[in-house]
Please model this.
Amino acid sequence: MITVYPEAHELHRGLLEPDGDSMVRSAECPERANNVVAAIRQAGLGPIVAPTKQDDRRFTRVHSPDYLSFLGSVWSEWRAAGETGTNARPYAFVGAGMRQVAVDNVFGRLGLYAFDATAPFVAGSWRAIRSSAEAALTAADLLNNGERQVFALCRPPGHHATSDQCGGYCYLNNGAIAAQALLDDGTSRVAVLDLDYHHGNGAQAIFYDRPNALTISLHADPRHEYPFFAGFADEIGAGDGRGYNLNLPLPLGTGWHDYERALAAAIERILAFGADAVVVALGLDTYRGDPTTHFDIGAEDYAAMGALVGATGLPLLIVLEGGYAVDAIGANTVGFLRALEGE
Ligand code: OKP
Ligand code: ZN
Model:
């Protein structure tokens, strides 16, 4: 299997997040991707290639042009405003009854284009964000050229990003951008299967009214977990897309036995839909050793998970999402990927 690895991810470093009364190093750190690529190399999984440069127009198939331009300029706007902090981050958001309006102040712009405070920008963020999405697009092109399974080792992750907002460590929605590229280049029906611990609200929102993109997410119940305000079972799609979004919220503490049943139901739906390709948003934060989450999936279960997904026999584009047990993320990713091929 080919891995597309955006080494520019390392420029997105020194991220901070709130913890109690302090700001601490973010769980979303460069070591995550470094450990995954090292494990893939060590396992001899296949070639590791760099992403190819991509045109903005492939991003604006999914994201608004003004949001894309914000991502590219926010760091210089931050510096031009005289801000000296290493992390540009909003403190104000558009609340109910307020106006979603373009303003000039950089904090206003940060608040307009973010739905939470966990997607900060540092000096090198934009190059990393772009490169991560380019990895997903390169993987889509490889799939279009006849590869059956391709892994986009994306960092930063993407599945929380909507058409015009960042949040939850995500900026460009790598998986949705790849899914749209597949549709644009000849795939009739694409499924996005989100296996991250957290709900894939981004692809859900982006494809909510579309019947040619089936979005499915298995995740911790939003009544107890981030992102809290999306991911409930009654979100089924709207308009022409009604029936083409499936949320499978699971209780905290869910182990492989129950996860497997939900995954089997998801796969059944994908096959009934008649998907021509599947984008898998692979989060390794379902792991029981993950310091930030509360599922009970063991290291050995990732092979079973990969085998189930691989048994669809469909072309697969896997994008990396979360996973914060830094020492285990490499082995767990390789366990999943290896099993996909039926090894
Ligand atoms: C991203 B992905 C602050 C914790 C913030 C944000 C969770 C983002 C998950 N102390 N947690 O889906 O893995
Ligand atoms: Zn997650």
Remarks:
- The CA atoms of residues 6 and 27 lie 19 Å apart.
